[in-house]
Write a structure and sequence with these properties.
By secondary structure, the protein is α+β, with helices and mostly antiparallel strands. It is built from 4 helices and 18 strands. β9 (about 185-190) and β10 (about 195-205) form a beta hairpin.
Length: about 290
Amino acid sequence: MPSFAKILGASAALGLMLAAGGIPSVRAADIWDQERTNAEGLVKGETPAWDNIRKQLFADKEIAEAVGVITLEAPPRVTDAAFIPITVSADKPQTPDKYLKTIYLVIDENPSPIAAVFHFTPDNGIANISTRVRIDSFTNVRAIAETNDGKLYMAKVFLKAAGGCSAPSLSDSDEARASLGKMKMNFIKAAASGQPGEAQILVNHPNYTGFQFDQVARRAIPAEFVNSVEVTYGDKKILSVEPGISISENPSFFFYYRDRGPGDLKAVIKDSEGRVFEKSFPVGDGANG
């Protein structure tokens, strides 16, 4: 896939040629037709970006529609492109014989389009996941589920949002450093009567994208982000996530877990600078911080 810098460079070069009269045959109607074609392609999901991402992740494997497997939800109206809630819901519970093994969250037009990869096991009970993402420009957002038999299923939504990857942090640098790595676990619903429980893990981290700018120091802020999340319950892995810069500041993940009796949910979180943050939370204690 062309890099974000190359795309910007090509656009700038075209602008200079047009200004200098170097492409006299280009008409406004031609440009409008191309823009309309691009927009239609985005809505239908037929874009060069997705073609490249698909080849990178899945080669030539068949991807079926996700009806009856997963549902992808996003808000119809976006108020903040840096904090967009995304939920992927599984239509069937996890069983030892048939379960969702992996969900790939892809944002076609983001500089780093593979937003996160989520790994599940039957011990989730249900493979639902919710998080918050950044959107850089109008784009399709996709969830591709892989079942334990290797089959792929895709759901997608089209979002009109822009600027989320370069939006400034909510905290200044000193505040972000002071709280870096602090974690909280919210137990949303206790596991009971064979039904899985629901929890939310949050970690304080600026999750810098590499496209943000420090207005005080007058410099670009290097990328620095959470790149690994693992939650275990006793000796069982409940959730494993490989996030990237498309996940919002202060990453948050809602997930499910089967009851295993008294014990802790242990979270181990790593970032791109090699830092490791660990904390255990007694199951069922409400909000833990």
